[in-house]
C-alpha cells in the first residue's frame, strides 16, 4: 500500500493541538528522557496499557490525559505516541484501519506513521498480548493487526496530521470505566479528500 500524506508540509506533522498536546511540560519531559523514536514507541506500547488488556477503561484520548491515566484504547495511545515523537522533532501522523469486531460489524483502529530517513513508516503501539506482536521496524511493517480483506477489513492510506473532527467528537463520548467501543465509528469519518479512502 502506498501511504498518502494529507500534505507535503512536514511542519503540519509537528504541530501541537488540543488532542496531540505535546506543548504540555510532562509530555516534553518524557520525550526528552526517552530521547529516541524507538524508546518512545516502546514506552507507549509497553508502559501505557491498552484499556481492554488492563480491564480499566480510562476514556482518555488527549495525549496528556492518556499519559496521566496510564491506559487508553488504540486512539489515545496513537495520540500519545504522536505527541512524544513530535516533541522529539520527528514528523508523525495518524493512520487508520477498519477491522472486523467479531460480531458482524467493524471498528476503527488507530496507529501512527512517522517520517524518518526520507520516508514514511507505520508503527502500531496498541500493546502486545497473545497473538499480537507489534514491533518498531522502519523497513518491514510489524503491526498489531494485518488486515483481512476477505472479511471487509482495510487499511486507509491517509496519513492525518490530526484526527478527523467527527472522530474526536466520537472519542469524547467514551465514559470512563465503561468497557466497549460502541461510540467508535466503523468507518473513517472524513471531511472530504482522498486520504480517507480505503486502500490495500
TrEMBL record:
Signal peptide: none annotated. SUPFAM superfamilies: Cysteine proteinases (SSF54001). Transmembrane segments: none annotated. InterPro entries: Papain-like_cys_pep_sf, Transglutaminase-like. Residues 33-125 form the Transglutaminase-like domain. It holds the Pfam family Transglut_core. Gene3D superfamilies: 3.10.620.30. It comes from the Bacteria. PANTHER family: BLR5614 PROTEIN-RELATED, CONSERVED INTEGRAL MEMBRANE PROTEIN. This is Transglutaminase.
Amino acid at each position: 500500500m502506498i501511504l498518502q500524506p494529507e500534505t507535503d508540509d512536514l511542519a503540519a506533522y509537528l504541530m501541537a493541538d488540543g488532542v496531540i498536546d505535546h506543548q504540555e511540560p510532562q509530555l516534553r519531559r518524557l520525550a526528552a528522557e526517552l530521547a529516541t523514536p524507538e524508546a518512545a514507541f516502546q514506552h507507549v506500547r509497553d508502559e501505557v496499557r491498552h484499556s481492554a488488556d488492563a480491564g480499566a477503561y480510562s476514556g482518555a484520548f488527549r495525549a496528556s490525559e492518556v499519559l496521566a491515566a496510564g491506559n487508553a484504547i488504540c486512539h489515545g495511545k496513537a495520540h500519545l505516541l504522536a505527541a512524544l515523537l513530535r516533541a522529539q522533532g520527528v514528523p508523525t501522523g495518524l493512520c487508520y484501519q477498519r477491522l472486523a469486531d467479531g460480531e458482524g460489524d467493524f471498528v476503527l483502529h488507530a496507529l501512527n506513521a512517522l517520517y524518518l530517513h526520507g520516508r514514511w513508516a507505520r508503527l502500531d503501539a496498541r500493546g502486545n498480548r497473545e497473538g499480537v506482536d507489534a514491533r518498531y521496524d522502519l523497513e518491514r511493517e510489524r503491526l498489531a493487526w494485518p488486515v483481512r480483506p476477505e472479511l471487509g477489513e482495510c487499511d486507509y492510506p491517509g496519513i492525518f496530521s490530526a484526527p478527523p473532527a467527527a472522530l474526536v467528537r466520537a472519542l469524547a463520548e467514551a465514559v470512563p470505566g465503561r468497557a466497549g467501543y460502541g461510540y467508535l465509528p466503523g468507518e473513517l469519518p472524513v471531511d472530504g479528500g482522498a486520504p480517507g479512502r480505503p486502500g490495500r
